[in-house]
């Protein structure tokens, strides 16, 4: 209920904390002499947030149901939609550049139709199909894991067949199954732990080993400027975007610092996008390494900084600022 009351402000937070780092990322790439196409895609990689890294910290300090927690979780949920769009866009672009998708008007229309059909299927699954299946199945971990496999292979297979890329189907499956697992109670929690154990404990290690084989650490240590600029474009961009909500009366300064740092958690979809671009020959090893390094720095710095902030300001953040809320409502009216 509280998050629904903040829905307009959460949308504002999502727009600002994605558009500003996108613009800074584009400007950095253009200033370094890259073309508009690469600059646009790299700018998009500055937008995603790995809110799952921050949620356990919020839970530990009992901040999930505070304004800060609702802004971070709400913006993170909307950010999942951006991640699906980002991977779909890059997959189609790679197909066109590599010749897998001919740049004819008919085939462009086919891709657009496939994307619309995929979006319709995902929406129907979210609103009706998956909730009905969840009610029909007993909320046992094995049933939920079987449902996960069916949805994952179904959406992944269709997205690959329609030239959108398997990753689009995988991310969408995760977004759709999240509410099903949460509503399944203890069975959903057990299934979530099982899926995470396999995903992070096995597939995650394989993925990062695969990524690490392509990283040029020696070259990055000689010239770390590109990685630093990409990190700052995302970090400062997200902070600046959230701080724009302070004069709007939506957040106070403490909340802006905490939300801005929390939404800077990285090492998510941008690594997948970077690897896809590298394998397609659309970016070089230097840029790929810089993207991985920028995300890795965020992964190391952000959780520690966020923990220090909530440890210092936790009591103030847990007290809902009624005056600020009233001011924000008057501003919205």
What labels would you give this structure?
mainly alpha; globular; 333 residues; Na+/H+ antiporter like fold
Architecture overview:
The chain is an all-alpha fold. It has a single domain (2-332), classed as Na+/H+ antiporter like fold. It contains 15 helices and no strands. The two termini are 20 Å apart.
List the total number of helices.
15
Shape annotation: globular
Low-confidence segments, given as residue ranges, are 100-104, 322-333
Residues in helix, %? over 70%
Which helices and strands, and how do they pair?
Elements: H1 2-5, H2 7-31, H3 36-45, H4 55-60, H5 67-98, H6 105-136, H7 141-161, H8 166-183, H9 186-212, H10 217-222, H11 225-243, H12 253-262, H13 269-279, H14 285-318, H15 322-332
In short:
The chain is mainly alpha-helical.
């Amino acid at each position: 209920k509280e998050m629904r009351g903040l829905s307009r402000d959460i949308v504002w937070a999502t727009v600002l904390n994605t558009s500003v780092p996108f613009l800074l990322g584009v400007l950095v790439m253009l200033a370094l002499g890259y073309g508009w196409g690469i600059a646009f895609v790299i700018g998009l990689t500055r937008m995603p947030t790995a809110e799952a890294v921050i949620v356990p910290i919020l839970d530990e300090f009992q901040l999930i149901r505070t304004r800060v927690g609702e802004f971070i979780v709400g913006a993170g949920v909307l950010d999942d939609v951006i991640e699906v769009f980002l991977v779909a866009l890059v997959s189609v672009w790679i197909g066109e550049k590599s010749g897998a998708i001919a740049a004819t008007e008919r085939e462009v229309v086919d891709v657009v139709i496939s994307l619309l059909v995929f979006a319709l299927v995902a929406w129907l699954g979210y609103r009706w199909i998956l909730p009905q299946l969840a009610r029909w199945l007993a909320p046992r971990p094995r049933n939920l894991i079987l449902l996960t496999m069916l949805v994952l292979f179904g959406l992944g297979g269709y997205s690959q067949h329609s030239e959108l890329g398997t990753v689009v189907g995988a991310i969408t499956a995760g977004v759709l199954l999240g509410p099903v697992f949460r509503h399944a109670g203890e069975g959903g929690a057990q299934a979530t732990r099982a899926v995470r154990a396999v995903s992070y404990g096995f597939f995650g290690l394989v993925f990062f080993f695969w990524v690490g084989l392509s990283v040029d650490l020696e070259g990055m240590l000689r010239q770390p400027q590109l990685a630093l600029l990409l990190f700052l474009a995302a970090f400062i961009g997200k902070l600046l975007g959230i701080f724009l909500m302070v004069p709007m009366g939506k957040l106070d300064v403490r909340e802006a610092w905490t939300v801005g740092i929390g939404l800077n958690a990285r090492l998510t979809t941008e690594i997948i996008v970077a690897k896809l671009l590298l394998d397609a020959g659309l970016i070089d090893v230097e840029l790929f390494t810089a993207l991985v390094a920028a995300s890795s720095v965020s992964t190391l710095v952000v959780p520690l900084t966020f923990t220090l902030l909530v440890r210092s300001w936790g009591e103030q953040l847990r007290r809902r600022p009624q005056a600020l809320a009233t001011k924000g409502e008057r501003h919205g009216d």
